[in-house]
Amino acid sequence: MTLFDLRLQEIHNRLSKKELSVTDLVGEAFAKISERDERVGAYLTLNEEGARAEAARLDNKLAGGEARGLLFGLPVGIKDNMVTEGLRTTCASQFLSNYDPIYDATAVAKLKQAEAVTIGKLNMDEFAMGGSNENSSFHPVRNPWDLNRVPGGSSGGSAAAVAAGEAYFTLGSDTGGSIRQPASYCGVVGLKPTYGLVSRYGLVAFASSLDQIGPITKNVEDSAYVLQAIAGHDHKDSTSANVDVPDYLAALTGDIKGLRIAVPKEYLEGVDPQVKASVMEALKVLEGMGAVWEEVSLPHTEYAVAAYYLLASSEASSNLSRFDGVRYGVRSDHAGNLLDLYLESRSQGFGPEVKRRIMLGTYALSSGYYDAYYLKAQKVRTLIKRDFDQTFEKYDVIIGPTAPTTAFQLGSQVDDPLTMYLNDILTIPVSLAGVPAISVPCGFADGLPVGLQIIGKAFDESSVLRVAHAFEAQTDHHKQRPAL
Amino acid sequence: MSIQVKDVEHVAKLARLNLTDEEREMFTEQLNAILQYAEKLNELDTEGVEPTTHVLHISNVMREDVVHESLPQEKVFRNAPDEEDGQFKVPAVLE
């Protein structure tokens, strides 16, 4: 057993008993990175000097017996769309290849308050647009379970780093599935909290009505542990929810007797047979623990992808107008006037998928098309949300696969954006409804991990985590590690 | 509704993007495919359905009108491609 295999709470306990030092933990993370990351490609920027200095400082503090934060000494990797003061933040875009943030995102500040150690910034699809991590402007990430396959996206680096043992836990962000889908492909645990539970301040905006930060971890307990540290109201984010943050660890009782589970028939249609078999097996496990499940219908599921791509792209086209080469980012050096400066800087700085979504969003918002596309999609979003509201009147959680397939081959879908978009068909409806969901490993198909998606009511992360934890305790899928 | 190359050119102008000939062709084809898929939404009758702009029902978030700490100027210019006398500098707006 390596340090990496310990649960975060166990590490915390060993640190307080001085059986372990922060320097040991940080050292192991960097040893794994130097051994593996050339093959995996999870990191864009390393904070080695800073992390080692911070480890020494925390070890000194430990020797003095001082009070220790919840995540004391734990090495964390952060998706590169959360700003980190003094540590380059690129969103995996050429546009921000030189960007040196002047403040910390709130989620990052909260990790620092809890005394976690930032070891680096993680690769992603450019501006979080993509589901395979092939849209990174720097280099793709490879799936630790099969280096010829994608890790999923857009938080591909965040999921692959945990799977490869290159971070004890990571933060990702999820707009239409960008935490859950890569977690599913990489065999790790990914939680998208309720919209508004974790502050978006300092998360570079993609689609502001959907973006949400969440943890990617090796197990459910760690997920609850990290969520505890990052959740909560923030006056710097006007869409931050002013709700009480419960004790998430206390929710992990292992007891799901009488739990009412809804299984949408739409979530099993067109799904790979091996993925479906793993999900049915998981339902049996839950049934064995006293839960009951019934098939239900979420009739608007098939409209979610179309509505999502119109809404998310529209919001993105507006959000990304800030990248104009004036205040930060890479400015084109051959522009004669201001308009050329905008045009040249943006055309050189953005990659093809980002341009595609800006174009789609600008079109959907443009005069004459707003009602037909943008407004229509917002109305369909209401219908999708109603599907969830009605289901949650009778059931505690909704369960299905996280993704219709396991990880696909690198390069196999790059020329077909629409097929790529359809990989998110099971995560997007949840994002549109704004409710929380977790992906936990529930089996393997031809050696590749399969993810189970557990969806809860708004702000009921406790139930989501409780069910995921109870399931995990009966299985050992999450304990499998890729042979790298 | 089918998109022509000239529509793509118009949208690119609105979005402040210069496209290459190749990109113009590619986006025309791909936006047509995506929008054709989006036509699916018209199967649904949304007469009288309220649009959802946000899932949380928060409006008008206010705070006390007191001065908070703000970023110092030297930090704000840390990433500026060009600056002069405490201002961001850009090329001439008019020729």
UniProtKB/TrEMBL annotation, chain A:
Keyword ATP-binding in record: yes
Top EC category: ligase
Enzyme active site: K79, S154, S178
Domain of life: Bacteria
EC number, UniProt record: 6.3.5.7
Pfam family, one: Amidase
Domain Amidase: 25-465
Swiss-Prot/TrEMBL keywords: ATP-binding, Ligase, Nucleotide-binding, Protein biosynthesis
Catalytic activity: L-glutamyl-tRNA(Gln) + L-glutamine + ATP + H2O = L-glutaminyl-tRNA(Gln) + L-glutamate + ADP + phosphate + H(+)
Subunit structure: Heterotrimer of A, B and C subunits.
Family of the protein in this entry: Belongs to the amidase family. GatA subfamily.
Protein purpose: Allows the formation of correctly charged Gln-tRNA(Gln) through the transamidation of misacylated Glu-tRNA(Gln) in organisms which lack glutaminyl-tRNA synthetase. The reaction takes place in the presence of glutamine and ATP through an activated gamma-phospho-Glu-tRNA(Gln).
Protein name, UniProt field: Glutamyl-tRNA(Gln) amidotransferase subunit A
Source organism of this protein record: Paenibacillus vini
UniProtKB/TrEMBL annotation, chain B:
Domain of life per record: Bacteria
Gene3D superfamilies, A to Z: Glu-tRNAGln amidotransferase C subunit, N-terminal domain (1.10.20.60)
Name of the protein in question: Aspartyl/glutamyl-tRNA(Asn/Gln) amidotransferase subunit C
Keyword Phosphoprotein tagged: no
Catalytic activities: L-glutamyl-tRNA(Gln) + L-glutamine + ATP + H2O = L-glutaminyl-tRNA(Gln) + L-glutamate + ADP + phosphate + H(+); L-aspartyl-tRNA(Asn) + L-glutamine + ATP + H2O = L-asparaginyl-tRNA(Asn) + L-glutamate + ADP + phosphate + 2 H(+)
Function: Allows the formation of correctly charged Asn-tRNA(Asn) or Gln-tRNA(Gln) through the transamidation of misacylated Asp-tRNA(Asn) or Glu-tRNA(Gln) in organisms which lack either or both of asparaginyl-tRNA or glutaminyl-tRNA synthetases. The reaction takes place in the presence of glutamine and ATP through an activated phospho-Asp-tRNA(Asn) or phospho-Glu-tRNA(Gln).
Keywords on record: ATP-binding, Ligase, Nucleotide-binding, Protein biosynthesis
Quaternary data: Heterotrimer of A, B and C subunits.
Native source species: Paenibacillus vini
Recorded family membership: Belongs to the GatC family.
Documented EC number(s): 6.3.5.-
HAMAP family linked: GatC
